[in-house]
Amino acid sequence: MSALDDNAKEIAEDAGGEGVATSSPEINQKEQDNRSEGPIILFFILGLFASLILGWIIFPKLLYSKKKQPIDFNHVLHVAEVEDGCESCHFFREDGTYSGVPKLEQCIDCHEEIQGDSPDEIKFVEEYVSKGREVPWLIYSRQPDSVFFSHAAHVKVAGMDCVTCHGHIGESESLKIYEENRITGYSRDIWGKSIGGFKKNTWDRMKMDDCAECHRKNTAKIERAGVKTPTNRLIDHFIDVVYPGTSKFGKGSSVQTERDACFVCHK
Amino acid sequence: MKIDRRSFLSFLIGGAAGTTLSPLTWKLMDDSAIWTQMWPWTPVPADGEASYVNSACSLCSGGCGITVRKIDDRAVKIEGMKGHPVNNGGLCILGLSGLQLLYGPTRVRTPLKRVGQRGQGRWEKISWKDAISEVAETLGDLREKGHSHTVGFISGSDRGTVPRLFDRFLTVYGSPNLMRTSSIIDSYELTLHLMQGAQALPGFDFENADFILSFGSGILDGWGSPVRMFRANSTWCNTGGKVIQIEPRLSNTAAKSDKWIPVNPGTEAALALGIAHVIIKESLYHAEFINYYSEGFDDWKRFVLGEYGPDSVATITGIDSTTIIALARSFARASKPLAICGRGQGTTPGSLNECTAVHALNALVGNINKKGGIFAVAEPDYINWPEVEMDVRAAAGMQKDRLDGAGSKKYPFSRYLLNRLPQAINSGEKYPLKALFVAGANPLYTMSDSKAVKKAFDKVPFVVSFSSYMDETAQNADLILPNHTYLERYEDIPTPAGMPRPVIGLSRPVVEPQFNTKHTGDVIILLAKAMGGNIADAFAWNSYDECLKETLGYKWRVMVEKGFWSYPDFFVQTHEESFDTVSGKFEFAPKETGSLKQFKPVNIEGDKTNYPLLLIPYDSIRLANGVVGDPPFVMKSVEDTVLKGTDVFIELNPKTAGEHGLREGQLAMLSTPVGKARVKVHLFDGIMPGLVALPRGLGHTAFDDYLAGKGINFNELIGPVEDSVSGLDAAWGIRVKLAKA
Amino acid sequence: MKHKKAKKYGMVIDLDKCTGCGSCMVACMAENNVPFRKDESDKLLSITWMRIYKLTNGKPFPNTDICYLPRPCMHCEGQHEGHSPCVTVCPAIATDYSSETGIVSQIYTRCFGCRYCMASCPYHARYFNWWDPVWPDGMEKYLSPNVSPRMRGVVEKCSFCFHRYQMAKEKAFMEGRRKVEEDEYQTACTQACPAGAITFGDLNNPNHTVYRMVKPDPKHHGRPTNPNAFRLLERLGTNPKVYYLSSREWIRRAGDNYLKSESIAKKPAHHE
Question: Under CATH, what is the fold of the domain B206-372?
């Protein structure tokens, strides 16, 4: 009702302020100011919150479709069984390529027959092992086709551990829901759980910037290690902070970007 | 509450502020950028474990070893096998694109039975069981009626276990009509038989030769085992070996040779005799070989010295006499000279006269069965199956004359005369052909005078194709029993053409059969079993693979491991034991064929007044003209001066073009006594005036859209010309008329 | 020097041995997932990272001569490191010169298809994807996972089979090595060439065959000191890393567009 009244009044006022005189003009003016300021701020806040809610809460729900892995998997249980940590199943092939998610071939050694009473294991043996079908795992960290990533370079040469990029997945007892970006088809883990792109840990995001961040830091570190004088190091650090990427020690192999050449990570 | 305009605007501003503070825009922008960079319809090849499988290529008779790179169960790349005696790592353009055939749209995916008219392309899928029983029934009926000899079989080769299974089947069934696709090898086999008494293939020791006199052989255009020839050429580059190329057109071989000598087309034999004349006259020949290991030299010498002096040969060949004399001298004085023939890729046998004349040059310099020379390589006898037991019907059928006339009184020395088959069927002189099987061959495309071949095929009531691909012959068959491709099957690959020592390759399944195809060897075995009786008894194997394993015996394991068997204990016969002729020596003038010593030009079709120019074909390694056509990758490599859109170019000397008022790129009408074609003109200084050259390998009507309907099939414009001694096709060209279109 | 151990991968093509057979072209297409279309006879639109050109000496019959010239990307170094004609003009940083390997890279997902690089490349080594790549049903099975298929609207070119370098490096890492040996990294065309006309290796490494074949002169941007060796359009100063060998003078002249009146013996000085 009141909204309608207000509307009527406004229309009247717009028409020239003639007609119904309810009170003195001054009071009227004051009242009007009081009355209109409130809703304006309110609407601003309303709009603000609505869009914030849309952007931060609803949008990610719309953007990502949720998919369950075909069967659940307990990393903790398996890590306890194997001798060589992650590399027992996620191994390197002789040619230096990385095998990624294990194939049936590896699982079959133990799971030819049903071992325990977990329903997922029973499903695994019955649906996949005995039928010789590969499990269509959804891969959280799958990179797009344009990316070349050498596990050998990072693990075998740089001596990084799996956790740096993949987090503590080895300590998980079940597989989380796989979320797929409806536009790009990427796993949510590439952009990161936080829709705002914020990260606390190195493994929170896997986009190109994240690769670059680490590379920039470490290339500089490696190159600088050879320089002895603390003064040099200080100057270099200063250049690195003020003009990132231009320090002659931090310079990568690319002539164009002065970072690592594009082909290093792309194919 | 009242929503006035200002509140609404305020709401929007709040919304905008909120959106800015929320990740929505930025995230959407990033995602849509990614989306546009990686369209979902651009395929993403699946990654997996890489592995390599050694096998052998059988797309031509070159017999290269291949190493196929696989990712999980997909074959992703074919590469040349390192350490293989034929190709050692290199591979030709066709072999490299083999995966486009394996996974390509031209595959016949299941047995097919014709529904509509022949060639209409309407098929019905049938089961293997039905297909085989239908064939067995038809063959059974014919045999019942005593018509077993009316069954013909065209095979790409007669060597190796699968062709031998065809042979065995026809023998025990009762038909003499197994025919092989002809090539220069036929002429060489005959030459070796007549001059050396050998049942053997020619083997050329190119790697050790230092002076190659090539009478038009496209050493670098696909002659012999192509990759081996490329390698040999590079060896000559390093060692200083010389190549002299004699042909009327500047082919790739001619361009890479040390000297290109343009010759009037079809007069190569006269040139060979002219060179012989100079060698004999100047006593440059290998006296020891001539005196101790040859027969009939004096007779031949008299004749050569009499008629083929440099001046008269110069008139015939168009090469001046000083060049002939110089050529003869450098050939005879080279330490390891070698003369070869077979025009282009050697797909036409040519005249026997030419082959013997060229071979006589090798004898003159004594390089028969010698390092750097030419060898008679007997096929290693690894196929030892028990003799078949023929019943009365089979024996009666085998008594009948061959339809193609090979081995007849007229052509007693030839084994196969496929070129005579269309005429034999069309004329109906002997007996009709009631069933025809085609395997490893595509006669409707590769045989000359396409129209006559088509007419002959139309007269055969039952045509069965074993092709893996929908080629011209399969397209016009009644039944297609598709074979696995060479990347899906086991098969022995016999010694490649021209190898001086035997090598058997092993083709093995690189991937699982992709479609409902069956090994032709298995089909023959099943067919034999379905027919029962003696026929079934002759095929006691359960499967082809079993047959092959048993046949290869102890070699099998080595071949599976290495990919080939190279006969480590193979040795070269000495001259004393090389010749199995009546005299036990090399025959310069085989008695059976007195006429051979004389140069007799091949009478090509057409008269000079109506057809003033000469049309010759040319071969290119980038244009496959055998059993398969160019896959898409190879088509891509064809130059735009050979094919533009669907128009093929003829090569024409600017002088000839000028006389005909033709310019570069202009359309012209080409007519020969056999056919007509619309072509475009490409001016090329490297071709002799008066000649028109057209590439082989185009003008397909079958296979896929990447190949079909482009250019002209040379065989539509030319017909076979029978060689008077061998009966083989001796045509090297045809007379032609050229007019603006 | 900051890149003491930097490599400079390059190629030497012996035109005396090259027969124009086309194996290099197809080996390249098969290795690099190069698409094809129904009509490939318009060579301006036909994507061939490696393309064989046919040269003729222009003389009338019978003095005519032809020569085949395979042309990959020249991976130009330019007058100073990375000053390649194409790299300098790219507004998207989609193409780049690596000072570690000397290879000019192309990142398809970054390219937005302006084709400046194509205009600036004097060798016609770059190709534009005017259409989406389409493989007939089932044929996409042979696609290699080592090279990403390109989409419509981007430029592509020869990469010196960079993925093979990456693969060789991974293998070396696995075996505890950091160095990739000469025979471990060879391009697909080099490997396939039946005539053995292509040699590939590090031009900075005197032990590599390519170095020994051309003997690049470091004072003149790697200009070959072998008198039979030449580079295409040497005078433009693009400083390419592909060298050609020929014993025939007319071919060497053709390689640098020499005019009839010019003498080849006098190598023109670069603008420096």
Answer: Dimethylsulfoxide Reductase; domain 2 (3.40.228)
**Residue boundaries of the structural domains of chain B:** 5-37, 112-184+381-565, 206-372, 613-740
Question: How far apart are the C-alpha atoms of B602 and B590, rounded to whole Å?
Answer: 20
Compute the distance between CA of residue B492 and CA of residue B488 in angstroms, rounded to an integer. Answer: 13
Task: Using CB atoms, pick whichever of A41, A54, A191 lies closest to residue B22.
Answer: A54
Q: Give me the domain span that covers residue A7.
A: 2-67
Q: Is residue C174 a part of any domain in this protein?
A: yes
Nearest CA in chain A to B36: A184
Side chain identity, residue C267: K
- Residues of chain B neighbouring A46 (CB-CB closer than 8 A): 11, 14
Quick one: fold of B613-740? Barwin-like endoglucanases (2.40.40)
In a domain, A45, yes or no: yes
Do the domain assignments include residue A222? no
What CATH number corresponds to the domain at position C177?
A: 3.30.70.20
Closest CA to B112 of B479, B423, B427, B451: B479
Digitized pLDDT (tens) for each residue of chain A, 267 residues in all: 444 444 444 444 444 444 444 445 555 555 555 555 777 888 899 999 999 999 999 999 999 999 999 999 999 999 998 988 999 999 999 999 999 999 998 888 888 888 888 899 999 999 999 999 999 999 999 999 999 999 999 999 889 999 999 999 999 999 999 999 999 999 999 999 989 888 899 999 999 888 888 887 776 555 544 444 556 556 655 655 665 545 444 456 777 766 667 778 888
With CB atoms and an 8 Å threshold, state whether A150 touches C98.
Answer: no
Neighbour-count burial for A197-229, b at 16+ CB within 10 Å, e otherwise: beeeebbbbbbeebbbebbbeebbeebbeeeee
pLDDT digits 0-9 by tens, C11-70: 999 999 999 999 999 999 999 999 999 999 999 999 999 999 999 999 999 999 999 999
Architecture of the structural domain at B112-184+381-565:
3-Layer(aba) Sandwich (3.40)
Helices (H) and strands (E) in chain A, counts: 11, 2
The beta strands (E) that lie in C15-162 are given as: 51-56, 66-71, 95-97, 104-106, 126-128, 155-157
The domain tally of chain C equals: 1
SS3 B153: strand
B512 CB near a chain A CB, below 8 Å?
no
Q: Is residue C268 part of a domain?
A: no
| Total-model pTM | 0.91
Is residue C173 included in any domain, yes or no?
Answer: yes
Among chain A residues, CA nearest to C178:
A157
Give B432-489 pLDDT, tens digit per residue. 999 999 999 999 999 999 999 999 999 999 999 999 999 999 999 999 999 999 999 9
Residue C261 located in a structural domain:
no
Residues of A with CB under 8 A from a CB of B: 2-7, 10, 36, 39-52, 54-56, 59, 63, 93, 95, 97, 99-100, 144-146, 181, 183-186, 191, 195-197
CB contacts, 8 Å: A144 with chain C: 109
Domain membership of residue A227 (yes or no) is no
Tell me the longest C-alpha to C-alpha distance in chain C.
60
CB contact under 8 A, C31 and B77: yes
Domain limits for position C86 = 9-255
ω into C62 cis (within 30 of 0): yes
pLDDT digits (tens, 9 = 90+) for C199-245: 999 999 999 999 999 999 988 889 999 999 999 999 899 999 999 99
Q: What residues of B are in contact with residue C245 (Cβ under 8 Å)?
A: none
Residues in C closer than 8 angstroms to B79, CB to CB, are: 27, 191-192
Q: Whole-angstrom Cα distance, residue B634 to residue B685?
A: 26
Please give the Cα distance from B628 to B472 (Å, whole number).
10
C187 in contact with A at a CB cutoff of 8 Å? no
